[in-house]
């Protein structure tokens, strides 16, 4: 069975995704900075590796066939961490994936990453980082899926999603559980054509 590396497995979407893959009996390598954050996950399909994304984390890719990059600097950090995690760590992950001949790279990006100049808000540095990370993946030669969720919330999974951007900005939202379930489906789908899609809760 193929093995999936989840980078950022202790984050909100990352942990839900990890649990869903384990429930579906997928072999998972969970890359985290602090393994204690996954102490409540017990599965024979799980191995946890403690790595710092600001350093060299290439060894985590060994024996994996698929990667999900769902790491993020978080909303309470400054632009320096956005640069180091959302951009630079993502770029390094793509480079490591090429080094280890990863078959499919799944990048969790953001709505607005296609055109950061269209956004005039405090989120712009974050969107620029996501845009550049996405572009690096697109130009890498790897097989890829880029998922760009709308505004995230903690609603329970409705399992009702759409890739069509709602006409009203207030409706351009999606629950983290729905994103995680979408990532599970991407993992279960054999790699085909490269894909980029936005993701929203279906009303």
TrEMBL record:
Organism: Pseudoalteromonas neustonica
Positions in coiled-coil regions: none
CDD domains, sorted: SDR_a5
Domain NAD(P)-binding: 8-188
Protein name as catalogued: SDR family oxidoreductase
Gene3D superfamilies in alphabetical order: NAD(P)-binding Rossmann-like Domain
